[in-house]
Amino acid sequence: MTNREKYVQAFVEGLEINADQTEGLAYEAIPEWDSVGHMNLIGCLEEAFDIMMETDDIIELNSFEKGIEILKKYGITIA
Amino acid sequence: MFQNYGERPALIDENYGALSYQQLFADAEVLYRQIGKRCLVFSLCRNSAESVIGYVSFLNHRVAPLLLPEGLDGTLLHTLVELYRPQFIWCPEERRGQLPEWEKAYQQRNYVLLKTGYEECELFDELALLLTTSGSTGSPKLVRQSYKNIKANMESIASYLELDETERPITTLPMNYTYGLSIINSHLYVGAAILLTEKPLTQRAFWDFLERRQASSIAGVPYTYEMLDKLKLFRMRLPSLRTMTQAGGKLSPELHKKFAEYAEREGKRFIVMYGQTEATARMAYLPYEKSLEKYGSMGIAIPGGRFELIDADGKTIEAEETVGELVYYGENVTLGYAEKRADLKLGDERNGRLVTGDMAKRDADGFYYIVGRKKRFLKIFGNRVNLDETERMVKREFPGLDCAAAGRDDHLYVFVTDGEKADAVKRYLTEKTGLNGSAFTVKGIDAIPKNDAGKTLYKELEEIT
Fold it and tell me: Which end of chain B has the smaller Cβ count within 10 Å, N or C?
């Protein structure tokens, strides 16, 4: 699986949504992405990329695109 | 009910900034003039100035409100309106679209007062407030709280938490939820300033507001503390934060210990508490000095209250470390339930004694520990979800399907006899309750296990969850 596929899969699993809903998605834009969904998403991202995210990064990840930017800090490039 | 502390700040709203007690009382007065007499009002709550102004207006002028979540599903809201027929609805302007049948009588900031035209109803003289037993499923079963209940509980809470006017709690729980409301009550009582935000603690805006406005305390249900743990709160610098309280379900002993240690290390207070809507809010607390020594315990009765444990025959259990049903006595024990409009005229049906439905034991030092629950409900992210009601909702929506609900806190399992409908049932529950879908698992099963009398065998179901 490419990093992008893993990244999309974390959204699909963490928020229980379809892959075609992920692009352009922002926090609270859908009922699934509430605070509970957010923590599930973070858990899925941490597992998929075997990382431990910092508090600042967890609370700043408020969109699909922002997450790609944040993951760069952890050495993960999503093309 | 509430006292005017003049120029002191009462509310600090993330959108409107600070409002003094003077302004709060003036705005509450203007709102009351539109209502003009004792009656029933539905208030759709959010953590904002308008919502608190409405609440203070109603309580101070003997208008009885039913507090509901602002996001309550439209169908469930209409069912409640038709059942109780309130004279007014106080709600965010955005909800207007869903309630077009009623005339707008007044507007204050982003809230509107809708006049329904329903005939007056008889209210018991001491009836102050109505809260739902299970907000998310729109249950028609309400808890009736009296003026004396609210007053007794807020005084007791202010005393054991040692609250004074320097406190600045930040909202992390809905206002229509008894625990969230008790924070508003007890802090208005001492003349403190309440920081009002709708932002969740998973977003930076919440922490910026907390820091900028120097919040002194935070409150949470077990799930909140699980989130704070994952957010690595232990590494955050939060100098203004003095107190952290927890209620709304049993925190795991591991997390209790972890937060107690953190608090001790950082010179903060971590206070685990126990309560129910039926007891206005609070019944017990674990003094912070004992937080580490007695982790896993929900503490001792609050000032003015006392506990008793009873066995299956209703006899008092004197022995320590023996499990029995927890019974509470105190002035905050509410009047009783209402299930229809005519029940609003009922008087006090409990006389200061509440059989909690929780199973507990007491240690040699007199500290109580919750070990289980008698009643058929779960707490999901702090919200009470009634299992029998969930079954009724699903059966009503999906005729011809048999179902049974079981589970543990934070996770509800629904077994349905038509596996193909599992996804639709899950979607329905998520939509109606407004709770995150990860809390629900819907499984197909050939038949619901039942005994000869037709009673569902939940024990068997629990084994396959």
Answer: C
For residue B5, being part of any structural domain is answered with: no
* Residues B290, B418 within the same domain: no
Q: Are residues B387 and B399 in the same domain?
A: yes
Q: Indicate whether B419 and B370 sit together in one domain.
A: no
Q: Do A40 and B438 touch (CB under 8 A)?
A: yes
Residue B31 lies in a domain: no
CATH at residue B450 = 3.30.300.30
Measured between CA atoms, the residue of chain B closest to residue A17 is B437
CA dihedral sign of residues B222, B227, B233, B236: negative
pLDDT on residue B17: 96
Q: Are B409 and B397 in contact (CB under 8 A)?
A: no
Number of domains within chain B: 2
In a domain? residue B32: no
Are B257 and B191 members of one domain? yes
Contacts of B223 in chain A (CB under 8 A): 36
Cross-chain CB nearest to A35 (options B200, B204, B437): B200
Chosen from A59, A60, A63, A70 to mutate, greatest number of chain B CBs within 10 A? A59
- In terms of domains, do B361 and B267 share one? yes
- B457, B352: one domain: no
pLDDT tens column, B436-456 = 999 999 999 999 998 888 889
- Contact between A36 and B439 using a beta-carbon 8 Å cutoff: yes
**What are B411-437's pLDDT values in tens digits?**
999 999 999 999 999 999 999 888 999
Q: Note the ipTM here.
A: 0.90
Same domain, B286 and B384: no
Residue B22 located in a structural domain? no
Q: Looking at CA atoms only, how far is residue B383 from chain A in angstroms?
A: 13
Examine the pLDDT at B410 and tell me if it is beyond 90: no
- The reply to whether B303 and B426 lie within a common domain is no
Tell me the CATH number at B361: 3.40.50.12780
Note down the domain range covering B422: 377-463
How confident is residue A26, by pLDDT bands cut at 50, 70 and 90?
very high
CB contact under 8 A, B227 and A35: yes
